[in-house]
Design a protein that fits this description.
Pfam families: SGT1 (PF07093). The chain contains 25 helices and 14 strands. The chain is of the alpha+beta class. Among the domains are: 17-217, no CATH class; 227-358 and 398-435, no CATH class. Mean pLDDT is 76; it is low at 1-13, 488-564 and 671-684.
Length: 684
């Protein structure tokens, strides 16, 4: 922002802004422009009462601009006067119905942006005839907050100008098949659609809950948690100003933090708030953002000015009160000095006016009228009135400074009495320990806001079945160049996990045992756009994923005896290769399996798998002595155990398992003492 006071309208071309529209329902019988404007002003007064009530209940202190609405009747001339509107944007905006428009710059305090959203939800809830829209420099930031719950079709391109607040709830207008995807929906058309069916486009509870969670801090009708109360020692006139107009505090803090060489020169004289003036101790309400900005500014005044500060070692609390009061008084001095510089300056001399006039000429506002003609002068006067109205709309430094100069000339006696009463009944300052955030606290805050949905400990209690279920759900998702989908697509579902091949007629196959397959991996393979059905390699991959596994053989005498039985293995493979199975094996994969089985038959690899717990035999059950040592393999525990071993081998660094956990949405916390080597089903 330019340091020249009044050199910029500070309009929506700044990055730290939130822009909002409110569309009230206008009766059909109101056609006259005078009657329409009167009705709009009445509605604005009612809305302003709601905003004032909610702000006072929470003792809210704005960082830069307040919530303000301008009446717009939607005429073409009015749109040309708006500095933020250019000819390219007019086609996208369309002819808007009568509405209220507002722009709030929030500076360094993002809380103002969400407080605006809260106010809009309350306005639309209190007035069911109003439809609101809000956006910022990032576009539809409400959808950014609810990104994890959005439908698959929602992208920045398809959601432009489609997010509205109706009745306190979020609504998202889905694009129809017949409408053009290249041109965004106009606000006029969107409002018309919502009017026809107010509940049709209401967002899902998951999306609404994301917004409600963000607005939860504002819903309690008590002073906002970000308010910090601090005792300051201020010149009497400065304390009196802040009692009359508490909103001057934010302007003073920002002016002090953004001071330049001209401002520092003014601080060497302190014309309006001299150090020798009587100083009083008073309670001042900051936002945490403003308090942090002021307290972290390194500044010590020149001793010759007369600022006498106590010893910071012997009286640290008193020293802090004096130093913060000195900084705040310096900010008020800067504002008053800046306003004095431009006092009496003509409108034509302002750089901002000259820039605004050039923009109007480039947009054809004067309709090719000759400069100096009657119609030209009429249009010029309208532009001047509109420009002055916009200057008064924002909390510019010059406007705040002019307010300070006026209050210094006309002090209020009531404020002086309040200061005298308060000095004898000062409330203690709030603790500012919240300024000190440790690395662990920061990690915890980031973890809560952006971290995985669930944490596991390598040596803690885990549910193996739940873990493998999350892994299977992750493998079911679709992946493409944009990443991994978080929900399944609307496609016909494949076989479920407990599906089995259709029963074969007797004699149609030599495979005597039931078969099991891996549907989760097969579904992930089929849905993955990288593996196309027409690619030759996809056949090998699918055949491998669909490979059948013989069911448990209760006549087994060793871990690998099923694979050592050459006759059974040959019958199984021949049946698969001969086409008798619904999942025939490729010859190349068949040879790989034969070689693998021969090698595994001579090893004890089966002992490395974790078996399921054996239950005590019942009295009425048969005692199978030949299988008393058999333990069925626990797929869940073995999967989790292998993942834990791989994660621990990464020693906290990046690797395939940590990347997979991140994609799934889970994380691992650090172990306490020693790594847990024996992962049993009860401990997992």
């Amino acid at each position: 922002m330019s340091k020249i006071p009044g050199s910029n309208l500070e309009f929506v071309r700044e990055e730290d802004f939130v822009e909002y529209y409110i569309f009230p329902k206008i009766p059909d019988n109101v056609q006259d422009e005078g009657a329409l404007r009167k009705l709009m002003l009445q509605i604005r007064n009612e809305i302003s009462a709601i905003v004032r009530e909610k702000s006072l209940e929470r003792s809210y202190l704005w960082h830069k601009d307040e919530f303000q609405l301008q009446v717009r009747l939607g005429g073409a001339e009015e749109r040309l006067l708006n500095e933020e509107t250019n000819p390219e944007e007019e086609a996208e905006l369309g002819d808007l119905p009568p509405h209220f428009h507002g722009v709030t710059h929030y500076g360094d305090n993002i809380s103002d942006e969400w407080f605006v959203v809260y106010l809009l939800t309350e306005i639309t809830r209190a007035r069911g005839d109003c439809i609101a829209r809000v956006s910022d420099s990032d576009g539809e930031f409400l959808l950014i907050e609810a990104a994890d719950a959005l439908p698959d079709w929602a992208t920045p391109e398809t959601c432009e100008q489609r997010v509205y607040l109706v009745g306190g709830h979020l609504q998202l207008l889905q694009n129809s098949v017949a409408s053009s995807q290249d041109k965004p929906l106009t606000m006029a058309m969107a409002v018309q659609r919502i009017r026809m069916n107010p509940t049709l486009y209401r967002c899902s509870p998951e999306i609404q809950s994301c917004i409600d969670a963000r607005l939860k801090e504002y819903q309690i009708a008590q002073p906002h948690f970000s308010i910090h109360r601090q005792v300051l020692e201020l010149p009497h006139s400065a304390a009196q100003l802040l009692k009359q107009k508490p909103r001057l505090l934010s302007s003073a803090v920002r002016a002090f933090c953004e001071r330049d060489s001209l401002d520092i020169k003014a601080l060497r004289t302190m014309r309006y708030f001299p150090p020798e003036a009587t100083r009083v101790r008073t309670n001042v309400r900051f936002t945490r953002c403003l308090y942090a900005m002021l307290s972290h500014q390194q500044y010590l005044p020149e001793k010759r000015l007369g600022w006498h500060l106590t010893d910071p070692v012997s009286e640290p609390e008193r020293y802090k009160e004096q130093l913060l009061g000195l900084k705040l008084a310096s900010g008020l001095e800067i504002l008053a000095t800046q306003a004095k510089r431009v006092e009496g300056q003509q409108l034509e001399d302002l750089p901002a006016w000259r820039s605004y006039l050039r923009s109007l000429q480039s947009k054809g506002y004067f309709r090719d009228n000759i400069e100096g003609s009657a119609e030209y002068q009429e249009l010029l006067n309208k532009a001047k009135v509109y420009f002055r109205g916009n200057q008064e709309r924002f909390r510019t430094a010059s406007r705040a400074g002019a307010e300070i100069l006026d209050l210094l000339l006309h002090p209020a006696e009531a404020a002086s009495e309040e200061l005298r009463d308060e000095e004898n009944n000062l409330q203690p300052s709030d603790s500012d320990e919240w300024l000190n955030i440790s690395a662990e606290d920061l990690d915890s805050m980031l973890q809560d806001r952006y971290g995985p949905k669930k944490l596991y400990k390598p040596n803690g209690q885990m549910n193996a079945e739940e873990f493998t279920k999350q892994l299977a759900e992750f493998l079911d998702r679709q992946s493409n160049y944009e990443g991994i989908e978080h929900r399944g697509l609307e496609e016909p579902e494949l076989d479920s996990d407990d599906d089995e091949p259709p029963p074969q007629a007797k004699g149609s196959t030599g495979l005597g045992a039931k078969v099991k397959k891996n549907p989760s991996m097969r579904k992930a393979c089929q849905r993955n756009s990288v593996i196309q059905p027409e690619e030759p390699d996809s056949t090998h991959v699918r055949n491998f994923l669909d490979f059948v596994i013989p069911e448990d053989n209760w006549d087994s005498t060793s871990e690998m005896s099923d694979y050592a039985d050459e006759d059974d293995m040959e019958r199984n493979l021949n049946a698969l290769a001969g086409g008798g199975s619904v999942f025939p094996l490729d010859r190349q994969i068949q040879s790989y399996m034969e070689q693998m089985d021969r090698e595994l038959a001579q090893t004890s690899v089966g002992k490395s798998f974790h078996g399921k717990k054996k239950t005590a035999p019942q009295a009425d059950e048969d005692d199978f002595d030949d299988i008393e040592d058999f333990e069925p393999i626990n797929i869940n525990v073995n999967t989790l155990r292998n993942m834990m071993d791989s994660y621990q081998s990464q020693v906290g660094g990046a690797g395939p398992v940590s990347n997979l956990f991140s994609a799934i949405g889970v994380g691992m916390s650090a172990g306490e003492d020693k790594e847990q080597k024996d992962i049993s089903e009860s401990a997992v």
